[in-house]
Each structure stands twice: as structure tokens, then as C-alpha cells.
Amino acid sequence: MALRVLVGVKRVIDYAVKIRVRPDNLGVVTEGVKHSMNPFDEIAIEEAMRLKEKKIAKEIIAVSCGPKQSQETIRTALAMGADRGIHVEIAQKDYENLAPLHVAKIFAKLAKDEDINLILLGKQAIDGDNNQTGQMTAALLDWAQGTFASEVTIEGDSMKVLREIDGGLETVHIKLPAVVTADLRLNEPRYATLPSIMKAKKKKIDKKTPADLGIDVTPTIEIVRVEDPPVREAGQKVETVDDMVNKLKEAGVV
Q1: How confident is the model over 107-114, as a mean pLDDT?
Q2: Residue 1 has what pLDDT?
Q3: How many domains in the chain?
Q4: Which tens digits make up the pLDDT trace of 114-125?
Q5: Does this model's pTM top 0.85?
Q6: Is residue 67 part of a domain?
Q7: Residue 145 domain-assigned?
Q8: Phi/psi of residue 202, each to 5°?
Q9: What is the CATH number of the domain that holds 176?
Q10: Best CA proximity match to 140, nearest among 103, 88, 94, 183
Q11: 208 bridge partner residues
Q12: Is residue 118 a contact partner of residue 5, using CB atoms and an 8 Å limit?
């Protein structure tokens, strides 16, 4: 069974950047800040590429929702090996309040339009940390889902997914079509080579809007205030175990 794979790729503030709250306390500073592909989405793209190298996948479509700059993220996915991209352009003011359900509806519609039978997503984005889009997409499509995947094996028209859970590892067998979300240990993403980057510039990126797909992205939440986390108080050093116990008693812990 040759798979048509859709991979979601999100543009986020780079993981190495120190986040700063905006002066109006309604978000974080994004202008002039380095952005990159969400790390878990890089893992999803890499897994799609490995399926293609095994002749299991025949086409990989990278999809990103967001402002014009999201095309940079799609180009990165194309340089990693994706065949083509779809940019669902959303104005910055609407993007700031874009909810996982909005994105899930977009992915579900594109999956139907593009005759997709496997959706690969990162388990979560490092900006919102919602961990909701994959599950919602599976629910909207009524597809099987394998979340927090650390190993994926295709077995005919089904898939074996090794999942990372609180108690250790869980193995699930699911039927295709399916939605799979990538965990950290699924693979090690490749670096894009210079020839691949040059080829990516010639690959096609289709442009759509939520309206083209019949999706309403009217905000369903309101950001009231964004604040930096409280500064941790300095710890105290103690010389003996008895001193530690006394300090804990003073703090009311024991």
C-alpha cells in the first residue's frame, strides 16, 4: 500500500531563544526574533522521509498554517525531502489566536481533498504546548490515532506504533488511514544538504486560505494577560540532616 502522507510543520520561535513578554502583556515578542520549524515536526518529516525511502510512501505533502513567513518553514521541509507544500495563509492578527481545533479542521479538510491516508504531526508545538491537534484531527476524520510515537512499523494496511506513556512503553496496532504524532525518540532528523536546499526552491507550494477550505478561524478564546513566570527564591544550604529536618519543620513541610 503506497501511502500519501501529509505532514504538519509549524513555524515557532527557535528553542534556543529567550522568550520576552510584550509590553502590552498580550503575547510574546516575535519581531526580530529567530524562528525555526517546531522540533517535533522535524521528527515527523524525517519519519515520512524514511517511509518514502522504504517505498512505503509515494508522496509527502508539507502543510503549514500561518502568516507569509510560514513559507520558510515549508521550504525547510521541502529541503528535507518533502515533495510539495501547502501554505494556508492566515493573517498575523488571526494567527495569534488560532486554536488547535482550527488547525485540526484545516488538516482534516486537506486530508480529504488530497486523498491522504497517513497524517504525521509533532506531538505538540513548543510555543503553545497544547498537544491537541493530532487527536482532534483524528476525531474529525474518524481515523485511528497513534500518539507519542517512538517507533512506527507499517504492516500492510495497518500500523504498529510504540507509544511513550507515563508508565513506560505501550504497543498499539491501528488500521490505516491514521494520524500519528511524533515523540522525541522516534528518530534523529537529517540536515538538509545544499543540493536539497537548491532543489527545494523549485518545488511547488500551493497557497490557500481557510475560506478556500470552508474553515472559520474566528477566535474562540481571548488572551487576557501574559506574564513571565515568578522568579524562584534562592535556596538555603544546611550542614546536617538534622538542620534540614528543622528547616522543613519551620516551612511546615513535615
Answers
A1: 97
A2: 65
A3: 1
A4: 999 999 999 999
A5: yes
A6: yes
A7: yes
A8: -95, -10
A9: 3.40.50.620
A10: 103
A11: 88
A12: yes
